[in-house]
Amino acid sequence: MAATVSETVDAFHRGRFQILQPKGRGHRAGMDAMLLASLVADETPCRVADLGAGAGAAGMAVASRLEKADVTLFEFSSEMVDFAHRSLLLAANAALANRIRVKQADVTLRADARREAGLLDNHFHHVIMNPPYNDASDRKTPDVLKAAAHAMTDDLFENWLRTAAAILVPGGQLSLIARPQSIADIITACGRRFGGLEITLIHPRSGEDAVRMLVTAIKGSRARLTFRAPLTMHADDSHAFLQAVDDLSNGRFGYRRNDARNRT
């Protein structure tokens, strides 16, 4: 009998980097992580924190596209931290591994405990996050690793965005991907911490309801919220990604903010 495969090596950005992921359990990174990474459109030297990084797909995608980005992956699960560490040892990642570090940390920590975990005050230029998104009423999964990655609590965005605001430099950028149903919680959690929210709804096809949204915001900004043109994934009669989405997901371009030249 063939041995059971417990993990896979998956390539992203057309093979420019790879990650190890658990097979048949846990959260497996894909399009969400790649679109999240595209929100960091900064060609200058910058420090990036990936909160709840899992095996590191989004943070590694930032480092793959931006040669001057220094990335820290923060993840609570010791098992996923191990996947991230081992991913960085893959030969395919040799060109970017020296710009990425992995830290096990609870991103909801506060004050000294947060700082001791490496979540330093006013340190990062960018914070990215793909937080758990399943509502408490959603069907539960018996997969403990997957449940930890997907289960959302009532105060999740308040806790995560509080940390993001603490560790970002003034004027730093928050970037996240979430379900559209979380929009009220996100706006409330931004409060006076973040302004200039730019929200892009993601639709599978023209005429279909949005299934995700991309959100960016600037620490300390007082600019108003903007709804950007929606992003459509597929043509009506196809499962192939439209060119703009394919470019973003494969690291050819970043999804630059509308106000990139004139932040308020």
TrEMBL record:
Family matches, as PANTHER family: TRNA1(VAL) (ADENINE(37)-N6)-METHYLTRANSFERASE (PTHR47739)
Keyword hit for S-adenosyl-L-methionine: yes
GO MF term (any one): S-adenosylmethionine-dependent methyltransferase activity
Any single GO BP term: methylation
Name the record gives this protein: Methyltransferase
Pfam families: MTS
Keywords for this protein: Methyltransferase, S-adenosyl-L-methionine, Transferase
Organism for this UniProt entry: Agrobacterium bohemicum
InterPro entries, per the entry: DNA_methylase_N6_adenine_CS, SAM-dependent_MTases_sf, Small_mtfrase_dom, tRNA_Adenine-N(6)_MTase
Highest taxon of the lineage: Bacteria
Record domain Methyltransferase small: where: 35-181
